[in-house]
Amino acid sequence: MEDHNTANISEPASPAASVASAEIAAEFAALSVEEKEQRRAEWSQELARVEEEINTLRTVLASKTRHASDLKRKLGITVWKELTDDVNQGFKNVKESTVFQRTESVLKSTGEKTASVFGSITSGITSKFSQMKNSESMRSIEEKVGSAYENVKTKVTSRSGSVSSFPDALDENNTDFGLNSPTDSVTK
């Protein structure tokens, strides 16, 4: 029967607990049957007292929780407000954490580098457009377009005898030849 009692002892977690458990088991095994029964009775009574204290503490805790809820209600503190405060505190804790600060730093650095790259690209494109605008071929195209416009404008003024804008001259030229704009046929 003594072997049966020591077989029910659970394995301790640490070497120190193992030594303590072995000592307790050895002391208990050395006791007589009456002394073992007496110890078990003492332990059962102590367990009953501890369980009673636990139940009393649960009752007191429930009463205190109700009282706290009543006070919060009177103060206008709602469950939603508590939840919001908890979430805000959680965000604050996250923002203050070193992991978040490192992540924020990396994102800032990446954003700055990206902005720098886009700035370089934009300035490069602007520079190329400026170079194109000032190039000989672009000046040549501008001159040709300008002279073509002047030639058309001169021909229009010489035919009608009056100076008008280019779109007006085109409209006048189209009506001279019986050509109507697409909107004219819709309105007629």
TrEMBL record:
Residues 156-165, 175-188 have a biased composition (Polar residues). Residues 156-188 are annotated as: Disordered. Keywords: Coiled coil. Residues 33-60 form a coiled coil. InterPro entries: TPD52. Transmembrane segments: none annotated. GO terms for cellular component: cytoplasm. PANTHER family: TUMOR PROTEIN D52. Belongs to the TPD52 family. This is Tumor protein D52 isoform X9.
